[in-house]
């Protein structure tokens, strides 16, 4: 217990702990922002890869191009499946790009992104 000129001063411990808590809070905020930014970078890479693959499919002029529409539907669905998987959700009605029989493929699997990848 700290005494100042014979009287009890209780403000000093609170002032000392306030500075320490401020440093700890700043550190935790910085850490969470770094995690957010890292997640944002990974998500941007996923979207860019999907777009690049879709652009490559647009240039196909072979018999394989007949399945191009199906590939495009699955490509548009993959980011939605991945987002729901990361967020711990499972809402097949959000998969608006797929045909009903394709949605059943997603429903039957344990992992929506994996089922989407296997369909591709």
TrEMBL record:
Topology in the lipid bilayer: Multi-pass membrane protein
Membrane-spanning residues: 12-30
Pfam families documented for this protein: Bestrophin_2
Keywords, ordered alphabetically: Cell membrane, Ion transport, Membrane, Transmembrane, Transmembrane helix, Transport
GO molecular function, one term: chloride channel activity
GO cellular component, one term: plasma membrane
Subcellular location(s) per record: Cell membrane
Major location (coarse): membrane
Protein name: Uncharacterized protein
Organism ancestry: Eukaryota, Sar, Stramenopiles, Ochrophyta, Dictyochophyceae
